[in-house]
Amino acid sequence: MNKPVRAMAVVCLLMFVGLLLNANYVQFVQADDLNEKPGNRRVIDEEFSRERGAIIVDGKPIAQSVPVKDKWQFQRRYTDAKLYAPVTGYFSYLYGREGIEQTYNSILSGSDDRLFVNRVIDVISNDQPQGGSVELTLDPAAQKAAFDGLADLGEKTRGAVVALDPQTGEVLAMVSQPTYNPNALASHRLEKVAQNWRRLNQDETQPLINRSTQTTLPPGSTFKAVTAAAALEDLGLKADDDVRGGATLGFPGIDYKLTNQGGSTCGGNPISFQRALEVSCNVSFGWLARKVGQDKLAEQATKFGFGERPIDDLVSYASRFTADPDTDLEAPQLAQSGIGQFEVAATPIQMAMVAGAVANDGVLMKPHLVRTVRAPNLSVLEQPEPQELGRPMSAGDARELSDMMVSVVQDGTGSPAQIPGVDVGGKTGTAESAPDRPPYAWFIGFAPADDPKVAVAVLVESTQNTSDIGGGRLGGPIARSVMEAVLR
Amino acid sequence: MSAPGSTPTWIPRKRRTAELGLLLLAIAIGIGSYAAVGLGLDGSVPPGIYTVGAVYAIVALGAHVAVRRFAGYADPVLLPLVVALNGIGLVMIYRIDLGLDAMGSPYGPFAQGQLRWTVLGILMFVAVLVLIRDHRRLQQYTYTFGLAAIALLVLPILPVIGNAKRGAQIWIQLGPFSFQPAEAAKIALAIFFAGYLVAKRDALALAGRRILGVDLPRGRDLGPILLGWLISVGILVFQRDLGSSLLFFGLFVVMLYVATERPGWLFVGTALFAVGAWFGYAAFGHVRERFDAWLDPWSDPDQNYQLITALYGLGHGGLLGRGWGEGSPELTPFGFSDFILSSIGEELGLTGLMAVIVVYGLIVERGLRIALTCRDAFGKLLAVGLSVSFALQVFVVAGGVTRLIPLTGLTAPFLAAGGSSIIMNWIIVALLLRISDQTRRPAPEVSTISGDDETQVVKLS
Questions:
Q1: Which residues does UniProt assign to the signal peptide (chain B) (predicted)?
Q2: Which residues of B touch A3 (CB under 8 A)?
């Protein structure tokens, strides 16, 4: 009977080899994946017991871990918590992480591979392991200006502001309103945290959402900058050329007519391309959209970044020209798309990118939030270089459009954004989403036109004062104060 | 085989002193781990280190003395391996007691009870060595053990003493004591199968049909394997105990194969297993749940919380582990019993888990070696049955918690908290040592016919 016994010995050997290989797979190959799963309490406990690195703006920590006397030993504390909440996000025992706390978690918690040597040294010298720090590109003055600007519209205002450096893509300001206090989620009093979490999630104004990167809404007339860019690029149009004006744009065989806001006639028909942008003439841009055609207009939007997530440092959603790329737009739908309605939807950061690319001679820079990533010993681990995403316009056409947008602020709807002594370019927008909802106010702009330092997008979804919502009136002053803060 | 002129009889060395040396090492591992838990958790050695350490060392050394006295030629490696495992298990249970206590959990403590069971288990080990001086005497009671096995299997479904825990009807409750009779039934079944197959193996090995190069048994000879299969399915249906069901069937198929030397039984067995598994999957929600949890635990994180958190523990342990007292094995429900292997993987790391698996593997290897050298068919079959079922059990439980195979409710031998498991596994080791002692003991009055190496006189009874 020894032959089958030997055979069984081989079978047993195979079983144990299987167990050993699988143990290696789980504990070595799969271990990192398992450690990064949300809700892994072991890792959360460990991270909570560690001195997490700081998030820094302009040399000052806006999020840091301070020693406390409880089982975790460290408490995450946010300074100017509400001001920076959309960017920092939160670090919660119960609800995980969000924002920079999430995207740069491996650095902040010290588990990043680049910190391996530090960890080994910590183990040898019996020190508590420490996390690295992340310095942001935000400009505190611009951030404050954006925050105050939205806050001044009233408590119930929902909106967002994004300011970028058009030449580098650095995010200078990023504000979302209403916002929340990350300290309320990072607290160690867990019942209280659970309460706060429920309250924030039940709040219908959705304070946990970063509207500047996560809310896509019809950009309205600010999208005319994209249509104008397509007209310059593809039709070879110049600022002085005539375009269709008048009170209405009709479509053969269809009852529907595209009209201007407030029934205006745009000052006649035809009017100059530049004048059409200054008065934000719907008829002109609906007409232009049809002349450019769906494919070219969609392509222009894509060149500006539509269809891609705008920023990697935070949760962000792609903007879109049509809900389904394969849609074949009817003539009126195409005309509406040309003025940023129908299915066009964009995030505020995307519209800031449009303004930035126009200002930056047609070069689109990738927005980023992190300037420097440092190890606990302050050595630099990472310093993101400005990254060019593409050239949606030729330099000449960009300068032409830039001049047109400057005249929008000087002589047109964008006048509230004027800054004395500075050439400011801009475009207003008022978009309708649903008939029963108040329209959205948009403003995009940049300054100074000849050497752009800041591009900005302002979105006001709703205010207490809903009847009086217009891109220029509401968004313009906020954009101006943000740009002033950067330029000062 | 031997040089001319010398005696051809092979006299194995007893190696009892080697066993003592290994045993001291195993005891040191247990007591050292115990101290490390205290240092890891509180920064000081646990207060009970002297008393608990002494109790453990004394019973382990007592077992060694019993082997020396009553089974002097037995395998010298098995006992130290088992003592090492039992010690690690005790320390891990103690460590999780402390963790559960710190969490304010209503469960526990379990370590005290486990230590008592261990002492009792070693006493049973000694009792088996003392009472059963020759394993072949068990063969006389073949059918008694068969009946006992069936009785033990039926007990948990009887009213009053039967007791369902965690979805499986596998416990009996006698006053304050609960007992899992399946563990005892396993041994009784192994003895029964060995005795039965020794008597019937010629009939079963009769030539059957040869299909696709595989010798299949005759139809009428399929009777016993079908009976074994039915018993296993019965356990699955009435007790909802997937693990035991699989274990008994595996035990039976393997012993049938070894007894008849016909691989056809393995194919038939595998086919029947497939049918049973399919039936279980189709008919029972809990089998389906286990299977789905194996494929993708994260599809239902609440339902599969235990497996997921065990995997997190393993991942967190990584290569070298968190160290005794430095991990959080108490987060895994039943991390002290069914999931003790994931607790070991967490605190001792991949290294420690692999060491434990290798120790299990060595136990199986020693068991199969005993079977190979055993001279009587009954002892050979019994040793194979006990070793392979031990291997199967380790494979099923370790594979289950590490997601190699779907999870089934079996305990990790010598590690997991649980009285029946500890006692029965000590008895298994005692039986293996008894067979080993019989095998290696030089036959008292063997004479050889000189000059003919091929011929040996073998003492038959």
A1: none
A2: 261
**Cis omega (within 30 of 0) for bond into A448:** yes
* Mean residue pLDDT across chain A: 89
Whether B6 has a pLDDT exceeding 60, the answer reads: no
Beta-carbon separation of A6 and B257 below 8 A? no
- Banded model confidence at residue B1, pLDDT cuts 50, 70, 90: very low
Instruction: Name, of A467-476, B367-376, B443-452, the range with top average pLDDT.
Output: B367-376
Q: Which amino acid is located at B387 in the chain?
A: S
Please state, in angstroms and rounded to a whole number, the distance separating the CA atoms of residues A54 and A31: 27
What's the rounded Cα separation, in Å, for the pair A166 and B208?
A: 85
Given a contact cutoff of 8 angstroms between Cβ atoms, the answer to whether B98 and B349 are in contact is: no
Is the Cβ of A10 closer than 8 Å to some Cβ of chain B? no
How far is Cα A67 from Cα B405, in angstroms, rounded to an integer?
44
Q: What is d(CA A417, CA A149) in angstroms, rounded to the nearest whole number?
A: 13
Statement: residue B2 has pLDDT above 50: no
Higher pLDDT, B172 or A350: A350
Task: With CB atoms and an 8 Å threshold, state whether A40 touches B316.
Answer: yes
The first and second tokens of residue A171, run together, are 């995010």
Of the pLDDT bands very low, low, confident and very high (cuts 50, 70, 90), residue A13 is very high
CB A15 within 8 A of CB B272: no
Q: Look at residue B448 in the predicted model and tell me its pLDDT.
A: 53
Q: Does residue A446 contact residue A425 with C-beta atoms inside 8 Å? A: yes
Catalogue all structural domains in chain A, each as residue range(s) with its CATH number: 214-378+385-487 (3.40.710.10)
Phi, psi of B268 (to 5 degrees): -60, -45
- Using CB atoms, pick whichever of A8, A30, A39 lies closest to residue B315: A30
Between positions 45 and 74 of A, the ones with CB within 8 A of B are 45-46
Measured between CB atoms, does B364 come within 8 Å of chain A? yes
The contacts of residue A413 (CB under 8 Å, 6+ apart) are A278, A279, A280, A428, A471, A472
Coil, helix or strand at residue A473: helix
CB A23 within 8 A of CB B353: yes
Of the listed ranges A40-49, A264-273, A278-287, B391-400, the one predicted with least confidence:
A40-49
**Cβ of residue A28 closer than 8 Å to a chain B Cβ:** yes
- Interface check A38 vs B, CB under 8 A: no
For residue A20, the chain B residues in CB contact (below 8 A) are 354, 357-358
> Can you give the pTM of this predicted structure?
0.72
Contact B243, B396 (CB under 8 A): yes
B184 and B124 Cβ atoms separated by less than 8 Å: no
pLDDT at B166: 55
Evaluate whether A23 touches B280 at the Cβ level (below 8 Å): no
B423, B296, B436, B430: which is closest to B374 by C-alpha? B436
> Residue for token digits 């595989």?
B214
Residue A466 has pLDDT above 50, yes or no: no
Structure tokens belonging to residue B223: 């009777």
Report, as residue numbers or ranges, the catalytic residues of A: 221
**For residue A433, what pLDDT band results from cuts at 50, 70 and 90?**
low
Query: Is residue B432 less than 8 Å (CB to CB) from chain A?
Result: no
Size of interface A-B (CB pairs under 8 A): 133
How is residue B179 written in tokens? 């007992």
Q: Which residues lie closer than 8 Å to B360 by C-beta, 6 or more apart?
A: A16, B85, B390, B391, B394, B398, B413
Contact A157, A177 (CB under 8 A): yes
Average pLDDT score over chain B: 85
- Tell me which of A37-51, A164-178, A472-486, B51-65 is least confident: A37-51
Q: Do B315 and A31 touch (CB under 8 A)?
A: yes
User: Which residue spans within A231-315 are E strands per DSSP?
Assistant: 242-243, 248-251, 254-259, 271-272
Model confidence at A289: pLDDT above 70: yes
